[in-house]
Amino acid sequence: MKYPARVKIIDVGPRDGLQNEKQPVPAAIKIELVQRLQDAGLKEIEVTSYVSPKWVPQMADNAEVMAGIARRAGVLYSVLTPNLKGFEAALAGKPDEIVVFGAASEAFSQRNINCSIAESIERFAPVVQAALQAGIAVRGAMSCTVGCPYEGEIAPEKVGYLAGLMKSIGVQRVDVADTIGVGTPVKVQKALEATLAHFDLDRVSGHFHDTYGQALSNTLAALDLGVWNFQSSVAGLGGCPYAKGATGNVATEDVVYLLQGMGIETGIDLDKLIDAGQFISEHLGRPTQSRVAKALLTKRAG
Ligand code: HMG
Ligand code: MG
């Protein structure tokens, strides 16, 4: 088996991770989390989202967070923008990349962004155009690519359909997301393959939530296809507010440990990453969800 020599991780903890937190997390904590992630060697960080504060109150401080981060050269900062209103608001924060987010499931599209898949693409098209004109990169997140909390199993054809639509409006790269973490390796590979029919290998990333404990296996299955871009959350933070019961993304620490063990380069300092995870876990007042962090912290204490 030939795995990629190098993997790029987007830490989505500040956005996907924190969006689901009930207690308000101060902007200063989010800013320090971003700082600690870049100190640990992360080259891509999903910082916040420009969505309705009524829908996701935790992200209401988006402008403050974007204005407060100390940017480092060579690090890409991305933000979610579901529509032109969000995109226009995001511009002041000078994101390097914006993310439009759709779903392979009609029901999830309705619950998450209050419109059908077709309507979502109509809304995204002018956002994508405006971003590209402004020299901002565009990523498309595709939710529920293996399973949906409302529709159950999702056929790969639906993923291919969405990927094709994303491509047709100018989205440059896409995330294949297992929003509720129900995927298993072969199903995840099918969703990835359906996407790879529309996007090059370098432009497809894996975004696996770990609800059923399958995310590392699914990561390995994606690596097996040559996929080398992944999203994960430090300390395994998170979940989507519109996917009840779904837990966080796979922990970045766990993915980094897996990759290091396989001799795959990430450019990430695992010790510093664990410190970043401890910083946010202590703030939230609960233990990290990362198995690797737990193990290495126990070892440190000993
Ligand atoms: P809507 O209610 O259909 O939109 O929401 P609307 O155009 O009818 O506007 C209604 C109100 O929202 C108006 O305010 C607008 O101004 C305001 P009002 O007049 O009632 O005071 N509004 C906005 N405010 C701020 N920013 C905006 C914005 N747009 C409208 N951009 C909308 C549509 C998409 C905005 C809404 O449904 C929403 O915010 N949904 C939240 C979606 C979300 O953040 N979900 C979590 C992120 S996705 C995710 O986690 C999945 C991912 O990780 C991949 C995976 O794991 O699957 C990416
Ligand atoms: Mg997610």
From TrEMBL:
Keyword Metal-binding found: yes
Top-level enzyme category: lyase
Gene Ontology molecular function, alphabetical: hydroxymethylglutaryl-CoA lyase activity; metal ion binding
EC number: 4.1.3.4
Reactions accelerated catalytically: (3S)-3-hydroxy-3-methylglutaryl-CoA = acetoacetate + acetyl-CoA
Alphabetical list of Gene3D superfamilies matching this protein: Aldolase class I
Superkingdom of origin: Bacteria
Keyword vocabulary terms for this entry: Lyase, Metal-binding
Pathway info: Metabolic intermediate metabolism; (S)-3-hydroxy-3-methylglutaryl-CoA degradation; acetoacetate from (S)-3-hydroxy-3-methylglutaryl-CoA: step 1/1
GO biological-process terms attached to the record: ketone body biosynthetic process; L-leucine catabolic process
Name of one Pfam family that matches: HMGL-like
All residue ranges annotated as the Pyruvate carboxyltransferase domain in the record: 7-274
Similarity comment: family membership: Belongs to the HMG-CoA lyase family.
Name assigned to this protein: hydroxymethylglutaryl-CoA lyase
